[in-house]
Write a structure and sequence with these properties.
By secondary structure, this protein is an alpha+beta fold. It has 7 helices and 4 strands. Strands 1-2-3-4 form a 4-stranded antiparallel sheet.
Length: 164
């Protein structure tokens, strides 16, 4: 996945960056110009970080590496983008959920707020080769998951996939 990865990742990355930016905007106190800059900086940081860790043929490969996580520690990519607009980690912790996990994978961007929250899909596109149909059947929507109290699928950031 050479230069093609950049184009392929664009939608997933812009979806994820827009989501984090929306969370900041909702919290208030950050100007539109700062938000725009934050979003661009975050997209750039993600592109750079994911460049050699994007595998459209094996979307789950490298998922732990691409996972953006705030869990009493600020994710370095979010921290870096926030630093560009002068937001400290302390300020970020006030503005963003204290526990946020964002998975940015080929064909799917999903997030979870809180360690026991439901996983919600922000973006999903069918994979070439028609594998998507099976995945979709097995997943219930956020609302259903929340209603039935079913625990979210065990996607964990700790499971790093090592790629050679």
């Amino acid at each position: 996945a050479g230069s093609g990865a950049g184009v392929a990742m664009r939608t997933e990355i812009s979806t994820a960056a827009a989501f984090v930016t929306r969370l900041l905007r909702a919290a208030g106190g950050v100007g539109e110009e700062q938000l725009r800059c934050f979003r661009e900086c975050l997209q750039e940081a993600m592109r750079e970080h994911y460049k050699h860790h994007w595998f459209p043929l094996v979307p789950s490969k490298g998922s732990g590496y691409r996972c953006i996580r705030i869990n009493h520690k600020m994710d370095p990519l979010i921290g870096k983008a926030a630093g560009m607009i002068g937001l400290s980690h302390e300020r970020l912790f006030q503005l963003l959920p204290s526990e946020l996990t964002l998975w940015v994978d080929p064909f799917e961007v999903s997030y979870r707020i809180g360690e026991d929250g439901s996983i919600c899909v922000l973006y999903e596109s069918p994979q070439p080769g028609g594998k998507a149909a099976k995945q979709l059947e097995s997943r219930t929507s956020c609302k259903e998951e929340w209603r039935t109290g079913r625990s979210s699928p065990s996607k964990s950031c700790n499971m790093m996939t090592v790629s050679s």
